[in-house]
Amino acid sequence: MTLIIHPIRKEFGAEISGIDLTEPTTRAVKQQLNTLLAQYAVLVFRKQALTPPQFMGAAEIFGDLMDQQLKKYVLADYPMVGCNSTDDLPRKNGKLQVRGENYHTDHSNDRCPPKATTLHALQIPHSGGDTQFVDVRQAYDDLPDSLKETVKNLKSLHVHQSSRSPRELTKLSAEDLAKIPTALQPLVIRHPGSGRPALYLNTGRMEGIEGMPADEGYALIEDLYRRATDARYEYRHRWQVGDMVIWDNQAVMHQANADYDPEQKRFLYRLMIKGVALTAAQ
Ligand SMILES: O=C(O)CCC(=O)C(=O)O
Ligand SMILES: [Fe+2]
Prior knowledge:
Layout: E1 4-7, E2 14-17, H1 27-40, E3 42-45, H2 52-59, E4 65-66, E5 82-85, E6 91-92, E7 95-96, E8 116-123, E9 131-135, H3 136-141, H4 145-151, E10 155-158, H5 174-179, E11 183-186, E12 188-190, E13 197-199, E14 206-209, H6 214-228, E15 234-237, E16 244-248, E17 252-256, E18 267-273
Parallel strand pairs: 2-3
Antiparallel strand pairs: 1-2, 3-16, 4-18, 5-18, 6-7, 8-16, 8-18, 9-15, 9-17, 10-11, 10-14, 12-13
């Protein structure tokens, strides 16, 4: 098997062909795919048709599977496999309320957040429902030197939901909330695979900046978030049925879009890969 790599940007996003993800992969191919994920941060595999066990096998190329945290959105027969489905979504004034709207990083409030998240598309609306990614490594590289100096030793407390977050969809009861971890995370991390520094942001879950007055901390987070979500750092994935897309949670932020006809079905399987504790960049 020879992988064919089509970079989407220079070092950000790559479409990989020459692989059938229902087939077992060799150690060498596994290693190559992990290196490609660390380098390109988002990998796209087209025209795959994976059953839940095959999708689990494909995801395991990148590491051990992690439990889904929102247990009500999993497949009954395969509880490791989450589903992003239109069926279970509420509507407000006729508009879908999708999970994952607004740029975020999955489960940043875990001490060891997922290394990667992957989706496999089974049904896609005729238009809309794209997933967007921004490259937070390049966003860090492009910060003015003085701002790099300011942020590189800072930490932020990540919680399930910041007291300033407007998110409603994944709001938890006080009882469930008490079981959810919080974690103090560096604002600039070093990627364990590529060695590249990256901003580590998740605005809706960041409870300010450690050691900074609250307003100043939130203002800094807002400023970094605004810079990192600039269109020049973006790859917008237009889904096709059969796509498997995997992204590196230490290199990108991502967001879902609620811009499609609520009568049209969107259904994707979802898996997460276990990660390690984050390392500060300095
Ligand atoms: O459904 C999507 O486009 C992405 C949703 C999301 O944020 C996730 O699955 O982590
Ligand atoms: Fe997400």
